[in-house]
User: What shape does this take?
Amino acid sequence: MGETHFSGLPQGGRGRILHAAMIVTTAELYKVAYGKFALGAYNINNLEQTNGLFEGCKQSEAPFIIQLSKGARSYAHKQMLEAMIRTAEEIWPDSIFAVHLDHGDEASCYDCIESGFYSSVMIDASHESFEKNVEITKRVVDRAHAAGVSVEAELGMLGGVEEDISVDEHHACLTDPVEAVEFIKLTGCDALAAAIGTSHGAYKFKGQQSLHFEVITGIRDQLAAAGLPPTPIVMHGSSSVPKDEVLRINAAGGKLDPSACGVNLDEYLPAAKLGVTKINIDTDGRLVWTRVHREYFRDHPEQFDFRPPGKIFMKEYANFIASRNEKLGSARQLNAVRESLAAAV
Ligand code: 13P
Assistant: This one.
């Protein structure tokens, strides 16, 4: 593997106090993780998810990426989310993480870039033509890099439903590695969200299917052939949709399609070794929430205090996060990140 150079972002800046919790740039995390392990990128919307996420990453000693979607920013209010994260930083002083805008449009990207709070933004113009996608992404990259923020952009189209984005199976298409290299060259994006066979939501596959590893290696090899440095690949739609969670939710009154099926957890690490450096997980966390709350209120029909199930959820979500970090290979990588940050000072 050639010399790894992650974006033209300015070195230094935010997050250099090495004994305290830190929001760092996503580029700094990518530098440590690339080709070795993947960073879990977890969506949060509320206090319970925030607490569970920080606790789970503490337990597993893992660096991580917090993802805030447009939907989360309007559900909880962007200032509330920022305040929760800054407070969590104080409560979990050993944590190291980046804050990322998930599936932004131009307006939300600029808002996050200008806030000074976000480590990175995702501009999702994958539904546009190649040329238009390049044009929009390039505009966002220029504004973001000037502010020391890195940019994830998407090429190819994942199927499934996520918030206000819905792509049917017919329109979903895998990323073309040759096009991907052209896209990276033209836009200067720091990470590429590539369509490698997954989709958003709980209904990813009919029967268990494998990731398209040939697309991942194709992008890596085409970049090398063009004399370009490696670019981290981001896998969206990475939830595993555990069967037992679906069955337990249905046994407690849910009506999820029992054929729901997700990504094989044992494919996270092989993908990471090939350059998939950020793995997005949202649906699985929602399943934990739904199972805990459905079971609790089924078993305690006289109850209306939401704190007892909330407590159970925070504990279960922390365990879930720690277990995913083991599969991603990010567990026990906190020291490697600390050392890398110290060396860069
Ligand atoms: P899942 O729906 O598989 O959790 O994917 C989430 C995601 O990709 C967020 O961007």
Observations:
- The chain has 13 helices and twelve strands.
- The radius of gyration is 19 Å.
